[in-house]
Design a protein that fits this description.
This protein is an all-alpha fold. 35% of the residues lie in helices and 0% in strands.
């Protein structure tokens, strides 16, 4: 019974060791072609990663153009819904459930 905690502690310690994330392939030990291919693959992966990081950056506006919010059309969220009453406190269109906050039921 006294060995169980020690075994459990050893298993937990062994499970905590290790690299997090993708594993790196080690360099080949022999063969000039294999070493050259490994270096070329490593260089290509670094260039692809750098290109991906450059592509993630947003493009800036040219210095001769400025952003004019009045030139953009209205976003859809502020346009009225078709069939909706333009007055907020007016009667609801037919078929809409009653709103208990704006029109509480009568007490009686």
């Amino acid at each position: 019974m006294t060995r169980a905690p020690w075994i459990l502690a050893g298993l937990l310690a062994a499970a905590a060791c290790g690299k997090v994330g993708p594993l790196d392939r080690p360099a080949p030990l022999y063969g000039e072609k294999a070493k050259a291919k490994y270096e070329a693959d490593k260089r290509a992966a670094a260039e692809a990663k750098a290109k991906a990081e450059r592509d993630d950056q947003p493009e800036s506006l040219p210095s001769d153009r400025t952003y004019d919010p009045n030139a953009d059309p209205s976003p859809q969220r502020i346009l009225p819904i078709p069939g909706q009453n333009p007055s907020v406190n007016g009667p609801a269109p037919p078929g809409v459930l009653p709103d208990p906050f704006n029109d509480p039921p009568p007490h009686g």
